[in-house]
Each structure stands twice: as structure tokens, then as C-alpha cells.
Amino acid sequence: LFVATLTYDTLRFEYEDFPETKEPVWILGRKYSVFTEKEEILLDVTSRLWFTYRKNFPAIGGTGPTSDTGWGCMLRCGQMIFAQALVCRHLGRDWRWIKGKRQTDNYFNVLNAFIDKKDSYYSIHQIAQMGVGEGKSIGQWYGPNTVAQVLKKLATFDTWSSLAVHIAMDNTVVMEEIRRLCQSNVLCAGAAACPALESDVLYNGCPEDVGLRERLTLWKPLVLLIPLRLGLTEINEAYIETLKHCFMMPQSLGVIGGKPNSAHYFIGYVGEELIYLDPHTTQPAVEPGDSGCLPDESFHCQHPPCRMSIAELDPSIAVGFFCNTEADFNDWCQQIRKLSLVRGALPMFELVERQPSHFSNPDVLNLTPDSSDADRLERFFDSEDEDFEILSL
């Protein structure tokens, strides 16, 4: 058995390699065998962008914290699930990071979107400050729903990625809403209509064949985040099979959530254990080198990933999916429908064609992002906040 011991600050972690098991290992829609593909598993894990606590970054808001140790773990997990969406969007699911190998500009563009400085699209600075509008003061702990809502707002400024971000509330995914959102740039079918957008942004990098362009602009790549509560204080066993299936789908972005007192980014499972990346390591903030190139090794977890029993998962999570094309979304819908037929698998959410009429009933808890019931929304989905202790900086 391979065990690596790493020491960061005064924290000591021991990482165990994967168990020798016949069970398949699933990582974000890819299936592996421990016996024949161990190197491939580790390469896949290492290639995910790993965001951890950092110290000595520019003060948030100019006068705020210069480290997120003790409070930023869910914000870092939000960054990781969103970074995976950007990797799929700009580099593809099969892209791999190899230590010492020169990476493309697109890779550095993705990484730069998350760097700890105020002008990066999805920096800790942007997330913390945008969270103030969601009722979270800087340095306060977020739940999975809050970080999802904040990332959705930040994505509107990321014209390079041009994503449609949908957060499915009330445990219900409404297909009609998603189609409307993803087809919202249909007016840009003619190149002249959107001269400011680069062709590769608008047309997914496809050749500039006008007929092709018109078809391709009909769908913005979709990031679908579904905040869920899978039990009261612990996960209801009936959801475990369904949760596992989410990691088997090619559209999987993984899950953010955790166990009481800490948030993790779950990227797969083996047997009855979840595989995750852990943000609870404090590293120094990274500055671009003299050449303007960013030293990126600390953004890749180069030891075997952590594992924990699925039964230990806190019931409050957000599940993520990425559909680059309309065909991807249709395929995802089909898989979700099939999943409802699996014996012993309780659906975690409902998939419906259009908004059920009871949604408009004012007596029903209204969970739209811009709802004036923001405080009720917080209590409903972020009730786990109370279980998290804020460590003093």
C-alpha cells in the first residue's frame, strides 16, 4: 500500500492509494479499473483544478481578509466545480495536465479566471464580495446553494466562456426554462449581429460556415447546478444509488458539499466511498512569474485523492452537470428518466417539461434567486451553516 505524508503548516495528512478492488472507479463520467488503469486514474484526478485555502493574497475589498483559512472551503469548492465546467468548455473532458509540459493559452486563461485577485472572474475576492448581496458578510461561511447563486451572477461577466448557468430550485429541473436560457442568444445567428464576440466564443471554435454558425448559436453551453437536501441530519440511504449514478454520467461536474465543519469537492466514487478533492490546506497565494507565466503546480493535487464513506456525507449538497450542446442536454434528460426506473434508487430531483402550476402559488416557498424571500431561501438551503464553526483567522 502506498501512503504519502504531506505536511502543510502544522497540519499533517496521510493519503492512501486506491483499495485493490474489483469495483470500478468512476471519476466525472469516466470508468476505470484499479488493476489496469491506476496511472490513468491518478492522472485524471491530478488534472482537475484544485483550489485550496491561500494566504497573503491582496486584501478582499481593499481592507478585508488576506487569507480564507477557516472560512473559504465552500467558496473553494464552488471554484473547483466551476473550473471543471470551464475546462470542459475550453479544453475538453479528455484534456490532461502533465507536470512540466507546456500548456496552451486556453489553459492559463481558465486558471487566471480563478486567481486570488480582485479582477479575476471567479476569484475568492469576487465570490466573497458578490456574496454580500446574498446576505453573507465577507469571511462568513457559505452553503452549497449560496455559492451556486453567486457563481451564476459572476458568470454573466465571463463573455469568453459565454455560459448559460441554471440553478434548479425546489428539487425540480424544468426543461423548458433551460431551453429558453440556452437559446437566449438565437438573435446572434448572423455574424453582423454580434461583431464584438470572437467567432470561437460564439461558435464553439467551429469553422465559419454560415449555415453551421446559425445552427450552433442556438445553444449556449449549459452549467446546471442543483442544490439538494438528501435528508435531515444525515443522508437518506435511499438516495445513495442515485447519487452514484450522477458521477457515471458523461455530463457530470461532480458534487459540492461535505461533512459537518468542512466542504469538499466530490469527483467520483469507488464501492461505498466518495472520492474528493479537499480545500483544507493553506498554500501561499501565487503571483505570475517575471515572464508573466503563472506557476501552476500548486493548483493540481499530486497525491492520491481523499476518500470517505458515502454515509458520512452532509445531506446538503449541490450536484453539477455540463451540457456543451443541445444533444448533450437531451442525452442527460434521457439518462435522468432512465435513472427513475432503477430499483432501490430514489430520485434526488424531479425532471419536468414545464413549470408545474403550483410553483406560482404564493403560499409555496418561492426559491427563485432574485426572490425577496432571500432570508427564507438562506434558512431553507443553508441551514447547515449553523453546524459549521468559523475558525478565527
Large-scale geometry:
globular
Give the radius of gyration: 20 Å
Strand content: 15-25%
Structural class: alpha+beta
Oligomer: single chain
Task: Sketch the topology as an H/E string, one letter per element.
Answer: EEEEHEHHHHEEHHHEHEEEEEEHEH
How would a crystallographer describe the biggest sheet? 9 strands, mixed
What is the domain tally?
1
Distance separating the two termini: 36 Å
Q: What is the number of beta strands?
A: 15
Extract low-pLDDT stretches: 1-14, 186-208, 361-393
Number of helices: 11
Helical content stands at: 25-40%
> Average pLDDT, to the nearest integer?
83
Keywords: Autophagy, Cytoplasm, Cytoplasmic vesicle, Endoplasmic reticulum, Hydrolase, Mitochondrion, Protease, Protein transport, Thiol protease, Transport, Ubl conjugation pathway
EC number: 3.4.22.-
Domain Peptidase C54 catalytic: 39-335
Function: Cysteine protease that plays a key role in autophagy by mediating both proteolytic activation and delipidation of ATG8 family proteins.
